[in-house]
Amino acid sequence: MSNLEHRIDQGTGREPADIVLKGGRFFDLVTGELVASDIAICGDTVVGTGGAYVGVEEIDITGRIVVPGFIDTHLHIESSLVTPHEFDRCVLPYGVTTVICDPHEIANVLGAEGIQFFLDSAEQTIMDIRVQLSSCVPATHLETAGADLPIESLLPFRDHPKVIGLAEFMNFPGVIHKDPICMAKLEAFQGGHIDGHAPLLRGLDLNGYLSAGIRTEHECTTADEAMEKIRKGMHILVREGSVSKDLHALLPIITERLSPFLALCTDDRNPLDIAEEGHLDYMIRTAIAHGVEPLAIYRAASISAARAFGLRDRGLVAPGWRADLVVVDSLENCKAEIVFAGGRRVTSKLFATRQPVAPVGLDSVKARIVKSADFGVPVTQGETPVMGVLPGKIITEYRRYRLPSSGNQTTVDLENDIIKVAVIERHGKNGNHANGFVQGFGLKKGAIASTVGHDSHNICVVGVSEDDMAIAANRLGDIKGGFVVVEDGKVTGEIPLPVAGLMSLEPYESVRDTLHELRKAAYALGTTLQEPFLQVAFLPLPVIPHLKISDKGMVDVDKFCLIG
Q1: Please, how many CA atoms are within 13 Å of residue 52, restricted to the half-sphere of its CB?
Q2: Is the Cα torsion angle 14, 18, 24, 29 positive or negative in sign?
Q3: Which of 405, 455, 495, 536 is the most buried (most CB within 10 A)?
Q4: What pLDDT shows up at residue 292?
């Protein structure tokens, strides 16, 4: 008898179901009702609701509620600092049964090899990992990346069963001004899914961007911006990560009326925050606590997300739908007590059935040795450009200050919270080094360095002391990538991330615990930022103060704060 025939027979009750959840209720995301019912599962599929069933295995969930598995619609697994296998083990118990990832970070270091690593991993994980093909490698001509992925390098992956489409198209000026490289990628994915990335883009420029067939967007930071994009046909992915925290600003749009056009995402979230707060479950209970109707936020977490990305088999607790199910204590608390992924109950034994995937990029940190003198910034006339950190956001402000000097060198200004920042090329291509100033870290001493440096992932280091900056940067080479904290000439905290300089080889629990100690070492330097390491990682992103795009489709170079 075929699997299809078994599903029919178990659904009709002619034979016992493989698994039956008994005594609970499920949340009907069509009507908004809590329905008392058995839930029958055959293989990877729900086959029965609204009746009484007998199961080979029966699980009592009296007093509990069943909701569809959660879908994270945009994230970079690399930002969790663990491999896809460990991410699977870390996040799936929170009820996240599907993730749609963009391996943009590892692709900018290793190119096609990094994408293949993610696809190989996705075929082994219990969680359903779907991959969007990284569209912007390199991400900018203003920084040296480790790889180049033209359309010819992406096409071999297009028909892979785990691939959904083209990942976030960050080069929106290139789209608007019809850059040939951008056009080749967009043409190749017409008719498929193309993910968006267009912070603050509005008006006619937004219209041009959307006319390229781009349908989803995770960069909205205000309700007004989100509403314009919804009205113009975009599906808004409400983001709450470790650095970019947009949930509270977007709460006004999370309504029952708009929920079909919303989804949830984390973008970048580390294991320490997951352990302390949760994942998408955190977004759900936070939204409800602030007055959002449960129906609206649970729809955004599942059925609306599935429909936005063409995943037609999941998102409801209903016969014929994929058995991605989360048994929660209540809609308000959203605490996952039992999780099913494709009909399999999530347990440690289930994770043990996965086959390992060999790590890649273990020798990707090829930066030259630097000295304290390399971090000098010569005195210039007038004001000096300064990057302004905005807590809770990855965008930065372009500021200018008259900074103090010593001899012929511009120095830090601790009174105004202005310290040094540098980016050091680490892919072994040209040894470039650029210096500048940043405001908003709160550092009073020492230095913090990282090989996680969006989007090209060179070494980024911030600090008060040039000596400490040099020690921190050089130490990254010794540990093959990661985060380092230096105080008064001594390394006071570090975490090795040898997989492409982005991910650890350790279990997520070890990464979580090490991050806790690393955070304490950073706080000892005086930083006031909740996530100083990811904030360092995002500093290399371009500073675009007013989104003025030239007729060549590029932002004016003098708007960037790094010098050199």
Answers
A1: 0
A2: negative
A3: 536
A4: 98
